[in-house]
Amino acid sequence: MVRILKYVFKHKSMLLIGSISMLIVIGVDHLIPYLQKLIVDDGIKNGNSSIIVPIIIGILGITLLKAVLGYVKEYLYDYIGAKVHQDLKNELFHHIQKFEFKYFDGMNTGELMSRIGEDIENIWQTIGFGLRLFVENIIYFVVSTIILFFLDWKLASICLAIMIPIGFMAVRMNRQLGKGYGNISDQTAEINSAAQQNIAGVRLVKAFAREKHETLKFLKMNRAYYDLNMAQAKTIRTYFPQIELLTNISLVAMIIVGGYFVLKNEISLGTLVAFSGYIWNLIWPMRNLGWLTDLLSRNQASSKKIFDILDRKTEIFSKSDAYSPDGIEGDIEYKNVTFSYNDEVVLRNINLTIPSGSKVALMGTTGAGKSSLLHMIGRYYDVKEGEVKVDGVNVKDFHLKKLRQNMSLVSQDTFLFSDTIENNIKFGNTEATMDEVREACRIACCLDFIENLEDGFKTEIGERGIGLSGGQKQRISIARALLRKAPILILDDATSALDMETEYELLKNLNNRFSDSTMFIIAHRISAVKNADMILYVEDGEIVEQGTHQQLLQLKGKYFDVYQEQFKDFETVESGVI
Ligand SMILES: Nc1ncnc2c1ncn2[C@@H]1O[C@H](COP(=O)(O)OP(=O)(O)OP(=O)(O)O)[C@@H](O)[C@H]1O
User: Fold this and answer.
1) What are the boundaries of each domain within the chain?
2) Which atom of ligand 1 is nearest to the CA of 341?
3) Closest listed residue to residue 160, CA positions, set 274, 286, 26
4) 193: confidence class by pLDDT, cuts 50, 70, 90
5) Closest ligand 1 atom, residue 362 Cα
6) Which atom from ligand 1 is nearest to the alpha carbon of 342?
7) For a pocket test of ligand 1, which of 346, 377, 520 has the largest count of ligand atoms closer than 8 A to its C-beta?
8) How many CA atoms lie within 13 A of 401 on its CB side?
9) Ligand 1 center to residue 230 CA distance, Å?
């Protein structure tokens, strides 16, 4: 809570004006029962009728002042709450952006979304409303209690004693409700996550005719949600009438005891009237106590989750004196590199020297470590042992942003934003002109199909590129990478959905137009890797063969086996197309 207050204190002047307004409202509010006492005791009982009209005008004035300052107070606290909400959300989002790939590998997207959404909303509610009400209630309670004791300590003690069970009951009710809200929140996250996954995977569901199963699964979750809400309603049903009853009993008790005191002339009738006004300032804080403590504890839990993320330091970052060149050549060297994601070693003892401008192809069995090998150049993951150098400098000594600005990666899992094709292609180079965009598309063999669309580059594509074929998505993401004109280009199985002819055309364009860039291509077809300057065959975390197409064929090893397998029936295709 203390850390959250730091965000609140950023808006000191608003907080000050809001708090002064709140104190004035509380102050004048406490005058009303006292003025009522004056009307009864002096105005009516003592026959001093001349004070009645001024007091009524005074009460009207107070009501007006309360309304105006009440508005100011509400507005300013809401403003502060919204600002804290905005600041925290921005900071959290910005901080998450700094995390390395490894963090996201182990993170559930739904969970992260609820940190950014639900948990920050909880804090917003607490700051904008709960905390203010909490402070307000304490002041009302303390000031009214003092005034009541000042008016008559005996009646005040009795009233206070009657109030305590209301607070006790309210806390018990909210403790039970609190537990239920926790379960409802977990269940909501589960339902949202199931709905999101089902909608994202709707094609798979339909392809496997699993609609009924998915619907039943969802109905079951929704039923559990309904049951949890009904259990909450039951708690409210049980406690609420009891709280109402206690409130009414305390009011009646106060009138009976107070009336008795009036009859015995221990207090005046006006004092009893004032009591019945002030007593609400005790009843409401007691009734609110439960849900306010619950709100504050929920805020505590949400703050902890949020600050756990904000306090997490990213494992991959630039050193303070990091190397920050204007541009890079693209020479790459691996020296005795060993790598593992967790404990299991994925790559061992990798040694490679790749001069800038080289075209390097990687082949091998699935899971052999090809993608992992290339992820270390841009420090998406760090080596466990050894070093990876770019232009002779250890990548760990580079300024991370500079290093990554000089690289372009097209990953296996094509991702396109729900936006226009143009904006998707310009994602890595927003300053690019349309001529440059067209040129990148020409090289990536996607210009014709984009221009043939009704809205051309302005065509909106759905989430993850829905509405496009797999090959179209791959070519758009290659165009996006090319537009960055980076000296290091990595195509990680990025042409797998293209037909052989288009793939050949695209790679030929790349070789011609990006001859200076160091280019890596992971592919499974001989046709895609055949013209590379260096082919690496990776197996079980090691480079088992390395050389040009001809050298590897002569070696008659793994690469040769793949070649034979792919071309045993296609000798004619090889001579024609490749
Ligand atoms: N983020 C990750 N966390 C943990 N293990 C991983 C992660 N990514 C890959 N692996 C594991 O590391 C090994 C190498 O994976 P990698 O993706 O580098 O292989 P690959 O040769 O590119 O495979 P493919 O051709 O199927 O894409 C595999 O055993 C894989 O299960």
Assistant:
1) 2-177+237-311, 332-577
2) 4
3) 286
4) confident
5) 21
6) 4
7) 346
8) 4
9) 46
Pocket of ligand 1, beta carbon within 6 A? 105, 341, 346, 364, 366-372, 412, 493
Whole-angstrom Cα distance, residue 560 to residue 558? 5
Superfamily of domain 332-577: P-loop containing nucleotide triphosphate hydrolases (3.40.50.300)
Q: What's the CA-to-centroid distance between 371 and ligand 1, angstroms?
A: 7
Phi and psi at 96, nearest 5°, equal -60, -35
Query: Strands (DSSP E) along 101-154, which ranges?
Result: none
Q: Which amino acid is at 483?
A: L
- Binned at pLDDT 50, 70 and 90, residue 202 comes out as confident
CATH code of the domain occupying 2-177+237-311: 1.20.1560.10
- Bigger pLDDT: 178 or 319? 319
Tell me, what's the ipTM?
A: 0.96
Per-residue model confidence (pLDDT) at position 391: 94
Residue that the structure tokens 């005791």 belong to:
41
Would you say the CATH fold of 332-577 matches that of 2-177+237-311?
no
Closest CA to 566 of 578, 551, 548: 578
pLDDT digits (tens, 9 = 90+) for 496-550: 888 888 888 898 898 888 888 999 999 988 888 888 999 999 999 999 999 999 9
Nearest Cα to Cα of residue 84 among 313, 309, 304, 303: 303
**Tokens representing residue 281 in the block:** 């300032």
